[in-house]
Amino acid sequence: MTLSIGRPVPDCHDRRDAAATRRAALTAAAGGRGDGVTRPNGEETHYDDHALSFHKTLPHDPTGAVHRPSHAAMVRAVTRHDEGALETLPVGRNRTGSGATPEDPPRYTTGAPSPTTYRRLTSPLTGHVYDVEGADAGAFAIAPAPLLATDELAAEMAELYAMALLRDVPFTAIADESGPDVTAIRQELDSMPFLAGTATPRTRAGRNHLAGRAPVVTGADLFRGSTPGSRSGPWLSQYLLVGSDNSAATVEGAVGNSAASTFPGERANLSEEDGFVLFGTQVVDQRSIVAVEGVDWMTTWASWLDCQNGVDFNGLDVFRPDRRFLTTPRDVATYVHYDALYQAYLVACLIMLADGTRFPKDPGLPESDSRTRSAFASFGGPHVLALVTEVSSRALKAVWRQKWMHHRRARPEVVAALLTLNATADAATHLPQQDLRDALDELRGKIPPGLLARVSAHNAAQNARTDGHVVQDAAAAAGLPTIEDSANFLLPMAFPEGSPTHPAYGAGHATVAGACVTVLEAMFDMHDADGSARAWPYPAFVAEPDADGTAHLAPASPQPTPGLTVQGELDKLAANISIARNIAGVHYFTDYYESVRLGERVATSILEEQLGMYAEPVSVSFTSFDGDTVEVVADGSLAQVRVRDADGDPVTAADWFGRYSS
């Protein structure tokens, strides 16, 4: 007697053999994604003291020069996967701050943390990890970082200074230039060749980065991303502001559920302007905890040096008492200080899943237009939510390999410190290598002097505060370089601890942004039936500050907002999160530009492998950050990636995957 009226085909041994065949085919496909040939910019070896290399947490002398034996030991241990040698580095719990040896310099500030604790290196060996899904971490690469004395790096540093100066100006007041100093700062940036679009970069990477910039003609052009969608409409993506709309739900009682409180978070009926995103029967509130305005960090040489030496200033942030919608650059910097790395994209996914009519799935997914099937286990909510988080860890492995194994680029706080040190009377003593001083002179000459003067004045005002948590120890700091107030070009940081304890290039947040947004743009349909870009389906909002320090959502002007599309707001979301790290002072524009494209390729490789596991035709498509049309197509067996560039010309998958390799 049979136990059922039907069994799956294939099954048992046949299924096992079919699964083995498909998995084996993935191995061959993985070899066609590139060799990840990476060429650093050469500055690590060009300058004798490794001034432009990452060495935060290692011991430094009073001028900020790294202890060379420790730096060499770190690079050797990291690149050779020598975890035993890493445990012997003068970092973290191996430090006491005694000042007795060059390997254990003293602390130069007083106050918290007490007792002094030291930070450790962040996942320095992750780039060696292999994976069983998607491209190997070593398959892709990013281009060499800009050199010190170039128009491009000058533009990056000037933009970072401008971001720091405008951290507490609402985005709406930046856009219409009603905020203090916005017009003057915008004009200073627009005077720079790389930001005005008149530079002539010598490298392919530089030309790509220039093409990814738009001229800074108005305040609304400041701090934008590299794609058309990221430059349209308000600066902040709607996915960081709006909530779900469940106004069609049947709710007992009148609007507001007869609740005594007027706070919409207690209601069951919600609209997008309430700012609550449905997560099952719970909600995610788009209002965020934000840092108090006016407080920047690392504006004295002593505090900067302590941070380079690894003193752990984490946890010294001071926050506003009330959460609010993201309103200022400082608000988004706080967001990316504490976010779960895929958080913004998970919330965006929830917004789209809650309104499938306005955010339909890609038509190439089998259940999108089926008369009898609905999506759940495959291509439904559980699938896409898991995929958004899944690609993030693979993206981190890829970028961690680039940042630790290859580029080891110094953070912006270091370049700003070198500019400051080179402006002292004893520059030749502090920076003995002549060509480094010459390059710094050239870099300073490319940054508008008015902007540098504003930075110096800002730092002087910060250092005059009497309520700071990090105060220079007069006795310990007696031997430090003398920094004149008028030439203090240290980069004011949004985080007490400054940058993370891993190299700048590429950026983890930006790589994850590129990967997660690629998944969303592939799984959801970005176009209407006629092929035109799908317009943003809700009214557009901006966060307007209130007198009590909170903020409310107000309709953007005009309505409807021209150029606002679903894909554009996703591209903008990736740019917002990535560039918010620049606003904090911890990354450069090129970290964002290269890394979102790295993440895009990681996600595409995972989509290619997953779609090849289905026994029926399935496809997804998206427009890349470069404007390519990318299709991942499977015929019931293996999948393939098809690409046409922005001009409609075909590009091989191998060339597309390897576009940013050296």
Automatic annotation (TrEMBL):
Organism taxonomic ancestry: Bacteria, Bacillati, Actinomycetota, Actinomycetes, Micrococcales
Gene Ontology molecular function terms on file: peroxidase activity
Biased amino acid composition, Basic and acidic residues: 10-20
Tree of life domain: Bacteria
Name of the featured protein: Uncharacterized protein
Sequence ranges of Low complexity compositional bias: 21-30
Ranges that cross the membrane: none
Annotated region (Disordered), positions in chain: 1-46, 81-118
